[in-house]
Design a protein that fits this description.
The complex is a heterotetramer, with two copies of chain A (639 residues) and two copies of chain B (314 residues). Chain A contains 22 helices and 24 strands. Chain A has four domains: 221 residues, Pyruvate-ferredoxin Oxidoreductase, domain 3 (3-Layer(aba) Sandwich), CATH 3.40.920; 188 residues, Thiamin diphosphate (ThDP)-binding fold, Pyr/PP domains (Rossmann fold, 3-Layer(aba) Sandwich); 70 residues, no CATH class; 120 residues, 3-Layer(aba) Sandwich (Rossmann fold). The relative contact order of chain A is 0.09. By secondary structure, chain A is of the alpha/beta class. The longest helix of chain A is centred in the C-terminal third of the chain and has 21 residues. Chain B is α/β, with parallel strands linked by helices and 314 residues long. Chain B contains ten helices and 14 strands. In chain B, the strands form three sheets. In chain B, strands 1, 2, 3, 4, 7, 8, 9, 10 and 11 form a nine-stranded mixed β-sheet that branches. In chain B, helix 1 crosses helix 6. The model of chain B has no long low-confidence stretch (mean pLDDT 97). The chains are: A alpha/beta (639), B alpha/beta (314). At the A-D interface, helix 11 of A face strand 6 of D. Strand 7 of chain C pairs antiparallel with strand 14 of chain D, so a sheet runs across the interface. Bound molecules: thiamine diphosphate (TPP) (2 copies), iron/sulfur cluster (2 copies) and magnesium ion (MG) (2 copies). One thiamine diphosphate sits at the interface of chains B and C.
Chain lengths: 639, 314, 639, 314
């Protein structure tokens, strides 16, 4: 078999049946070989029973950062997973399924929603197939050109149970291992290497490792004929170490490095894992002893979360909260308080599918305008949106530096596609990062004024500093912080605050706020957040496959907005050759661009199904939009 | 060492209505802080919005005048970030028991060392006299177009149900007594609440200073009144007694300490158990950088996040 | 004395000393003569003791709708009111003050904030005057050309006390009557006419009326020489009746006429008076009996206010809530719920000075972008901003019609300048208004689907309707309302909702969403909300006094935005001759214009002191901005 | 007339974990509604967010699945707009006692005729097992990285302190008993609350069905237990007794009705006193237009707003 630069597989099964473990084992095993891995996960807002799947890319060269629509292997743990992934089966896809379930009917699967059943039924019926699993497999084979890999799970698990002296009932809990084993086998991940994955996942539980390896052996025997069918090339370069981390982890690590020592939160998907991770390492235990500690407070609601964080920031801690849309909505009033009181507080906002509760475990990029203008009245805020895990880590540090330097709330925006996807990354070198605590006063003199009008940014004291006292109030205030309704003070104090945004705009180079990738002159994609991964890869594919040579302008800071730079680039291309790519309906970035520079980017590629943008669908859409077939192309790949 | 109360006078003009019960609270608070031997910079007064919300501006100490209903969570963040500070919440009855009731309950659960003063005037003062959550059903104070539709919430009962370990009531016109109660509340390690009966001379023509004067009696002068829980197994009994006292309202209105639980650990103590460095180096006082670089260098990073690292095989 | 088309007076005094009563008495008295009156009020966030003032315009022809910077009479009840209104004293202004206070010093007046004292002191010192009241009066006279009218309040009140047999102490409470009497005298409002004002204010309290009239007589005697000094011309036209109402009243009346029968609210300035007024007439008592009743519920917070209103709307009532910025912030999460569930709920948003608690009793127009994008995710909302009391009344009705027709939340935006100003208006003819309840189903059949995808607007049933049941959820849902995460359903259901905005845009003529006043070609002002009054009057003054002939484009609906119409008008003028006029810092309407049509209006006249825009300062600013002296002119008239 | 419980089965697949205590609640609720003789369209089930929040979808009745913590105020608007509806709130312990605690307290004050079911599983189910406000201090359930830091709030105490006129506890695995309690709560005119002990099989490995089975006892089988307040002057005594029962937790856990006050008027009654037409023509049922025009014509307008009108003199 010819070795591939990259292999891609999908594993599917009901929630609560070990898919995440399977993905972890495989990811670690590949990472330990030096591969760059990307895995994303789709799941329902449900604890047990609904269908879930994980798509994984294992690359021998570069770090993948977006899903692709074609898989080398699809492994289905249950009947649902066969029906759900008809679209994902492509030419030559190895499609592993449980042969014992061939007679299962779609109608007998309550965990699949009616609308989805209808969609699946239509797909099958459209090509003349019935709605049993056997029919679905025929469809996959005959229509999609995939290669079904039937395997009797019963048989394999019985053999396994017998060989390990356990009950068949207990053996069932190892069904996910069948998927792991099959994929390892097909992609050429040898038993020793696979063992590493198990060992890491089940550290100190050798018995479980052995069980898993035993089962893997049985599967390998059964599927012997598929061995090495889709082998991946050895990695081109091997770093000494890799971190395997989610977007939530990346932000948490950034916060710890930044010196954040107080985080208050209220649990919400997809933000909560960040706080759990912080709770887990709260002690900052190192070989040199405890480096300090992070107080992580689960509050009664998001209003308490942000107000507690603001309180901690006033006291002098680097403090933050993390949430998603519904929680952010509740923080809006306090955001304004932080604004008028010039409090350096960081809000990490993980976007998910809205509006309202929406699609709570799915993703979207539709909170941009909300976050930019949230809270009544006017005050400066800084807004950073990260495009991948590396950015997420660095931006988490940057957020605190900017917050303290400019004494404003900073909103750090991410989305579920980043938060819940797991990638490999080379460990960062924190020494190369700066910590800027902004203007502080440790020994204030008698005339100290917290809100001195002398400069837009007045030096801060922490609550409790001897030698002075300070008042904070949500009312308009004078230089010492006392309520003031005087009109002259009002004008000046308001200007003082708003000027800080101009200072930030001067200080932060526009090229750091937006980055141009590629230099092709045929078209310009413009996007933000998790679009980055798909866009950059799409450029390459478009060039390779269609000779279309474009570039991608990645906007990373919405406030202060890099107006001149974005304007310059857009004008270079001419607005007619610019395509806005966003995971939302209204083209929010495009609206911000229009607002700031007056160019209305009308060509758009948009998606709002709650699923990530796949490289392939973007590749397909660009020439259509560019050619003027359609002004807006709506994507909807991914179940 | 005790200082003079004037040390805690911010000098700002107090723009409450002449005769307002809030004056007594400010006076008592200044005296209490002075007698506790605190210095202005060691104290943070955190308030919500309302007439009562202006309190911090009149006290020469760090003052945080927050949002309507949110003084408690602000105070929570302040105290947790720097537990050396003396943190006092001063809020209206609407503020703490209406819009802020959820936080009020949560603080009880947490037993964080904060003292909460409720300016209980049965009205929304600053928005011109609507019924607050402590105004009884059927009562029509001056600015109400019709008598009140809703039943009142009893601040003491709510505090007891929520787990506050210090629950007291005082009368703003008896400054000396109020001062003592404030001092007790501040000294008490854990979440303390004082329901301060505070006449609003402008909008509350029912519960006037006179009304209270005729009814108030002092628990500490009641023979045998002992509100202190010294052992865990006294808790249910003392709590029950406190609740019965809390329900007394009408002919006689008790003031004084209703309940004081010395057996429960504070949130700070609990955190310290988990994070041993917490008291020595709380969030606000940790060194986080060395010469402008993160204190967490590459090596520490790899140690802290060991479980995320994968060693690549050759 | 020559009769004037309009007289303007200002009365000033401490809060709690009867200024509002004074204004009411005078307003009613003038209205009863057929004059059109406009009065605005400035006050601190304080119950008693801080300075407050009311500016009144009494016009014999048209309805004034904005403050003017020159007064014929200023009447100061206390020393503070003299110092505070040095700027307002103009040439020939009759400046009534209490002669007993001449020796008062500015420094001895704690109710004036330090910043304001500084400003006053500098004003006086700048012209070489000291800071006693006597000096201030000299300044007013010598520098400003005003005519001081000294009056010993002690003397007048003693005489009054004696004549009526009351204590001097008790007589003091009548100090405000001195101002009333003086103004009536100077402007030619005879005793009989004045009596009407008192009678109305103190209905069924004849004794008080007599007291007041007695005191007025004494004042008239003392000030005999000023009698009829600034007489106002007889009204040109006399309607049979006039309503005297605040903006809050106008909205409340609109709501009652619209059929709103449920309002939940949490008290907040400047919204609360609307709810009180509703509470007062809750029984809808008429000569034909009770027409129904309005349930007005004071909730525990604004989250409860909006969610209760949504609940009531689901049950079938026309339901609303009213609030201002801080309260609106708390409503944001529920707004999105109403959006995804297509609930016709109306939110009346009274803007005040922000950010945060800001200047809670002052005004501003800075919540536009916030309200437009509030809540995470995307859903349709309709946004109407009224420019005066008439619009406020009609828009309150319109809001419910649009909400029910399009099944969306509607945000009706006003500001403190409208809410708290009192005007005269001819009684409306509700019969001429429409009630459109949108698509309703009373007898649903078996196949009824609340969120049918057949049309963007699916007919509603109220909770409790027999024959069906319906589910509502903040999650993405299918046609019957059950949670659905299916991708196809998601795409279609999302589109269904968003399409409603397109329908609204098609149905509501753009010319109703923005209105052009005037047709001069020299310049175009663009604005919204309370800017309307000042802008329209400024056009006239600019034409009369400077021969500059402009027009004013009043934007009344921000969503759906009248893009084509606004675009057309702006292009007719050329963006260089367009001036954005707003009571905010960032030019929020201009940003919305840019976002929608790509034109960035850079010429701006802005104000953010918390005070209303005065006609005069706008008149002054327009030629400066137009001439290119400055791109942005910042206004700050009014203490 | 009683119908069959299946009438209240929406037919939607229930996606709770197999064995979840919520199944018992749905079953009991369907039975209760049927036995109460209600028809699906007369009932509105209002929920918050959480596993518990999905309840309305499984009941064939009008269902309103609201926002986290906000079921009570949504329900308040629904009930006030149309008091003929039977309105039941179904919410999680996090939902009602954490983020929603302020509304929980407010409903008690209002005594509006709504029945509240608390799905008390001591965890945040749907966000994967964090501590909820009812989890005791020091307990470490499955998904917690460390033992719980905060003390619990006692739902019954909070309900009693807030003024609920019907307060009960039930166990979700005893469907028949729970059904009866639900029926009592729905029949009770006024604000009713049921704390339902609901085992979460996935995340709560401490308070399991087994744990409860070993401890539960039934108040209605206790000789002399009479929780009903029939006259105003019994209130303090019955309330005190209820509170003592409410504090019982450990070896023995009481279920049943703890308190039932028949003496307090409901909010609906109070409104009716002010707006006589309220019951006959509540907000949702008023005619507001005649042929597409406002029912309030010019004449009515001038009558209603008389006090704003000024007659202009000739
Ligand atoms: C979110 C929000 N809602 C409403 C208000 C308006 N508001 C200001 S003070 C107040 C009530 C004050 O009553 P209380 O808390 O009892 O304090 P008091 O004035 O009586 O001391 C309200 C509702 C606000 N500032 N913020
Ligand atoms: C404003 C907001 N914050 C957070 C969440 C996330 N969230 C969903 S369910 C839930 C907790 C559920 O716990 P509980 O109320 O006890 O219900 P259970 O799942 O245990 O039935 C949370 C925090 C949300 N949906 N909305
Ligand atoms: S309104 Fe009442 S509470 Fe407020 S300052 Fe005046 S007297 Fe005091
Ligand atoms: S997580 Fe717990 S509460 Fe939620 S469905 Fe599963 S068992 Fe039930
Ligand atoms: Mg109050
Ligand atoms: Mg729970």
């Amino acid at each position: 078999m010819q070795e591939l630069d990259e292999i891609r597989f999908l594993i599917g099964g009901a929630q609560g049946t070990g898919l995440e473990t399977a993905a972890q084992v495989l990811t670690t095993a590949y990472a330990a070989q030096g591969y760059r891995v990307y895995s994303f996960r789709e799941y329902y807002s449900n604890i047990k029973g609904r269908h879930s799947y994980i798509g994984v890319r294992v690359n021998s060269g570069t770090q993948p950062a977006a899903p692709r629509a074609s898989y080398h292997v699809i492994a289905a743990i249950d009947a649902e997973s066969v029906f759900m992934h008809l679209d994902d089966a492509g030419k030559d896809t190895l499609f592993l399924y449980n042969a014992d379930l061939e007679s299962r009917k779609l109608s007998g699967l309550p965990a699949i929603e009616e609308e989805t059943k209808k969609y699946i039924r239509e797909t099958l019926a459209g090509s003349g197939y019935g709605d049993s699993l056997g029919e679905a497999i025929r469809y996959i084979k005959e229509v999609k050109g995939a290669r079904p890999v039937p395997l009797s799970f019963n048989k394999v698990l019985s053999e396994f149970a017998e060989s390990r002296g356990i009950k068949v009932f207990a053996a069932r809990r190892y069904a996910n291992t069948i998927l792991i084993a099959a994929i390892a086998l097909m992609t050429g991940l040898g038993p020793d290497k696979l063992r590493r994955g198990f060992e890491r996942r089940f550290a100190n539980r050798p018995r479980i490792v052995e069980d898993n390896m035993a089962l893997a052996g049985i599967v390998a025997k059964e599927l012997e004929q598929y061995k090495n069918m889709v082998p991946v090339r050895r990695p081109k370069r091997k770093p000494r170490r890799l971190i395997v981390l989610s977007g939530n982890d990346a932000v948490a690590m950034g916060k710890v490095v930044a010196g954040m020592r107080f985080q208050s939160y209220y649990p919400i998907t997809p933000a909560q894992d960040e706080s759990f991770m912080l709770e887990n390492i709260e002690n900052l235990e190192t070989s040199q002893g405890q480096l300090g500690g992070v107080v992580v407070l689960q509050t009664e609601d998001e209003i308490a979360a942000i107000t507690a964080a603001i309180g901690a920031a006033l006291a002098g801690a680097r403090a933050a909260t993390a949430t998603s849309g519904p929680g952010f909505d509740l923080m809006v009033e306090a955001l304004g308080w932080a604004g008028i009181n010039e409090v350096p507080v960081v809000i990490t906002l993980y976007q998910r599918g809205g509006p309202s509760t929406g699609l709570p475990t799915r993703g979207q990029q539709a909170d941009l305008l909300d976050a930019l203008f949230a809270s009544h009245g006017e005050f400066p805020r800084i807004m950073i949106a990260s495009g991948d895990h590396e950015e997420a880590f660095r931006d988490a540090v940057l957020a605190f530096n900017l917050a303290e330097r400019h004494q404003t709330p900073v909103i750090h925006v991410l989305d579920k596609f980043i938060a819940n996807s797991i990638v490999t990354m080379e460990p960062p070198t924190p020494e190369s990062l700066e910590i800027d605590r902004g203007a502080l006063v440790e020994n204030p003199d008698k005339d100290y004024k917290r809100f001195s009008l002398e400069h837009p940014v007045s030096p801060r004291v922490f609550l409790g500093t001897p030698g002075t006292v300070v008042w904070y109030t949500g009312d308009e205030h004078n230089e010492v912080g006392y309520i003031s309704e005087d009109k002259v003070n009002r004008r000046l104090m308001y200007e003082k605050r708003m000027k800080k945004l101009e200072i930030a705009a001067r200080e932060i180079p526009e090229e750091e706020r937006a980055t141009l990738y590629g230099d092709g002159g045929d078209f310009l994609l413009i996007g933000w957040g998790s679009v980055k991964g798909a866009a950059i890869e799409a450029l390459k594919v478009l060039q390779d496959e269609q000779g279309l040579d474009g570039a991608y302008l990645h906007v990373r800071m919405m406030e202060p907005f890099p107006a001149r730079y974005v304007s310059k680039i857009i004008e270079e291309y001419g607005v007619g050759r610019v395509i806005d790519v966003e995971n939302n309906y209204t083209g929010q970035l495009a609206r911000i661009v229009a607002m700031n520079i007056g160019h209305i980017v009308r060509k758009r590629v948009l998606k709002w199904t709650g699923r990530p943008i796949y490289v392939d669908e973007l590749v397909h859409a660009v020439p259509r939009v560019l050619g003027g077939e359609k002004e807006v192309e709506v994507l909807e790949y991914g179940i | 060492m005790a200082s003079r109360p004037e040390v805690f006078d911010s000098g700002e003009w107090i723009d409450w209505c002449p005769g307002c019960g809030n004056f007594g609270i400010v006076t008592a608070l200044r005296k209490a802080l002075a007698e506790l031997g605190l210095e202005p910079h060691q104290v943070v007064i955190v308030s919500g919005i309302g007439c009562s919300g202006k309190t911090p501006h009149f006290i020469n100490a760090y003052g945080v005048h927050t949002l309507h209903g949110r003084a408690i969570p602000f105070a929570t963040g302040i105290k947790l970030a720097n537990p050396d500070l003396t943190v006092i919440v001063s809020g209206g009855d609407g503020d703490l028991l209406g819009i802020g009731a959820g936080h009020f309950v949560a603080l009880g659960r947490r037993n964080l060392d904060i003292a909460v003063m409720i300016h209980d005037n049965q009205v929304y003062g600053l928005t011109k006299g609507q019924a607050s959550p402590t105004l009884p059903y059927g009562v029509k104070t001056k600015a109400l177009p019709k008598p009140n539709l809703q039943d009142p919430v009893n601040p003491l009962m709510l505090a007891l149900a929520s787990g506050y370990t210090f629950v007291a009531r005082a009368f703003s016109m008896d400054v000396e007594h109020l001062k003592k109660i404030i001092m007790e509340a501040v000294k008490h390690p854990g979440a303390a609440v004082i329901d301060i009966l505070q006449p609003c001379v402008t909008y509350n023509d029912v519960y006037t200073a006179q009304w209270y004067r005729e009814r108030i009696y002092y628990l500490d002068r009641e023979p045998g009144w002992d509100p202190v829980v010294r052992k865990e197994d006294e808790r249910v009994e003392k709590l029950s007694k406190a609740m019965i006292k809390a329900m007394e309202w009408g002919e006689r209105v008790p003031v004084g300490i209703l309940y004081k639980d010395e057996t429960r650990t504070t949130l700070e103590e609990r955190i310290e158990k988990r994070v041993p460095s917490y008291r020595k180096a709380p969030p606000a006082k940790q060194r986080i950088e060395v010469q402008g670089r993160p204190i967490i260098n590459r090596r520490y990073f790899e140690e802290l996040f060991k479980r995320y690292l994968v060693e690549v095989e050759d």
